[in-house]
Write a structure and sequence with these properties.
seven-stranded mixed beta sheet, 506 residues, single chain, 14 helices, Aldehyde Dehydrogenase, Chain A, domain 1, alpha/beta, Aldehyde Dehydrogenase, Chain A, domain 2, 2 domains, five-stranded parallel beta sheet, disordered N terminus, globular, 36% helix, 24 strands
Amino acid sequence: MGAPLGGASVTVIQGRNYINGEWRDASETFESVNPSDIRETVGVFPASGKAEADEAIAAASAAFPSWKRLSRINRGEIIDNFAQLLKRDRDELIQLCAREVGKQWNESYADVIEAIHMTQFVAGYARQPNGFVVPSEIPAKDAYIIRKPKGVTVCIAPWNFPVAIPLWEVLPAVLEGNTCVLKPSPYSSACGYKLAQLLDEAGFPKGVVNVIHGGGPDCGEVLTHHPDTRLILFTGSFAVGQSIQQFVATDPIKFAACELGGKNQLLVLDDANMDIAIPAAVMSAYKTSGQRCVSVGRILVDRTREAEFTERFLDASQRLRIGNAMDRDVFTGPLVNEQGREKSERHNARAREEGFEVLLDGGRLTGGEHEHGYFVSPFVYRGEYRDDSWVLNEEAFSPHVAILPVDGLDEAIRIHNEVPYGLAAAVITEDYRKWRECREELEVGLLYVNLPSIGAEVHLPFGGMKRSGNGHPGAATLIDYVTHRTAFTVNHDHEIKMAQGLSAEL
């Protein structure tokens, strides 16, 4: 286990699975390390396999009948208990997030606050209408649309929002009467373990929420393929999301909501305010070291403003302070692991191979405070758009940015929409007609005007189109997807009268 940061004594978390209200071990374990300093082991966790996955699904299945019969308001009260615990342990969660996944302290703070906001939203939603009264063709009939839970729900969460996104998935599901198995990313197991502790303390009945640790092939795939799983909520890569959707397509009783990656873009138009464009570009490209699904990898700049934008953007990019995520004064921290750093290098190399002009030759940072972490500096390149470019179309998940000059708004929209992803975009303009056209024409699930491409709010939909999702946005709108909409019709007359003029005579 090596020396912890700064030579200080840091307790290594001994994580366990949480199944049917009990803490369980597995025969094998894995370590989670601090990406700012890989000499520090954050925790040791069960490497769960089929046995643990089956056990968790069985617990969720057994708990489902009684949980769905519990009053929706009572379910909301337990979620409110959980919200109070999140607030109580807020600072611990922030520190854990920064240590385990390398999110700079302020970003970790925002992650935890977002989790609290999501929990508060869902708890409050418990007292909101849970269906609709709709008119019937027959005056003596009352017609309703009611919601019913789908059943055992598997939630597979990513590491980059280790506190917020698991709760985006779990809480809407359990509010509506589903039971859950949460599998955190192996790179955020300590955060997932802490959430399990708080969920247990909040008073959820046994089996309603289960948390198990492990990798995708050995654990996640067993959970998603299990015959008793009814709903899969997945946030992660396009490749894994595609495999989940392909499997679900073969099973008529399963459903999947997938929020996937993006090759997101910032549009800097000819009338852009550069005092807004530059910080928006920097935040969009470099927060979390480009490891957000909404991070910008392409900046489309009107050719008349390109020189000005490029000069200022490069200056800002070179002034970024990159360092230990626990340091409140750094702008961004490390990549999460060596695989991420190698992927970043592959994308940088492809940009060179494809003949783009490298403006800022970023890469591995070594020595000093960077010596033992997965740190990289920004890589910025420029060139004319080419639709056959691999590097312009694939997600890098690192501070890897292309500057592409465009001739006017129409070309910017065309180039934007040719990318195979459609998650997030931002447009910088002072002209309401231009941003309205972007609103109508850009193929994205999230659009920001005179803002960065990051900054989701929990009461709004979150998801994309094309390779970025399957049309079932998360956050607040996930509540619509974790239930079946059931038609319920009551006849108050003394005889049967049918819609569409259908005769009831025998």
